[in-house]
Amino acid sequence: MDHGPGPYAEFEAFVAGAAGRLLRVAILLTAEPSAPSGADATTDATAAAEAPAARALLGGALARTYANWRRLRGDDPYDHTRQELCAAFARTGRRHHGGSGVLGRLSPLERLVVVLRLYEGVAEEVTAAQLGLAPERVRALCDRAVTGLRTRPGAAPGPGREQGPDARRKEAA
Q: Across residues 63-82, what is the average pLDDT?
């Protein structure tokens, strides 16, 4: 649909440029499986079709951004939409516990912190303010989540990873 020049054409251009990245954020938050890395646009569309919770979350965030579009002058629409997406996820996070995606082993709050801090690169203080947490709590959640992701249940430590003091002593002997 072409609205011609104006704010709604700007919104359409924003969605065309940002929807893929925002969908990836939503898929990570909901821990739904996604396309393998390096996938083409067809595979991305297939992954989106297979991630109904992520699509619903993103659709709601984009709808709220669209409703506020005229008031966003001078603000970053991507940042606003990401905040809407994360707020909606925080309200419904208990519905997204578990999952088979890459972050499925994390709790919803840990996923939210990891996605904001590590995937999106949002500063610790900004993440804390957005989530209503102390920065120390955000740091602790992020550290715990990363540790949990690094240690797969039943997996042997890989080369170059710390194996504990006892293992190092045995290797030195």
A: 91
Q: What pLDDT is recorded for position 36?
A: 54
* Confidence (pTM): 0.75
CA distance 82 to 85: 5
pLDDT at 141 over 70: yes
User: How deeply is 113 buried, as exposed, middle or buried, from its count of CB atoms within 10 A (0-12, 13-18, 19+)?
Assistant: buried
103, 114 contact by CB (below 8 A): yes
pLDDT tens, 100-126?
Answer: 878 988 999 999 999 999 999 999 999
| pLDDT, mean over the chain | 80
CB 72 within 8 A of CB 65: yes
Residue 38 Cα distances to 18, 121, 142, angstroms: 18, 21, 26
Contact predicate 51/34, CB 8 Å: yes
Nearest to 18 by CA among 82, 69, 68: 82
Return the closest-CA partner of residue 120 out of 52, 21, 20, 14. 21
Taking a C-beta distance cutoff of 8 angstroms, is the pair 120, 24 a contact? no
Distance of alpha carbon 59 from alpha carbon 53, whole angstroms: 10
Integer distance in angstroms from the first to the last C-alpha of the chain?
72
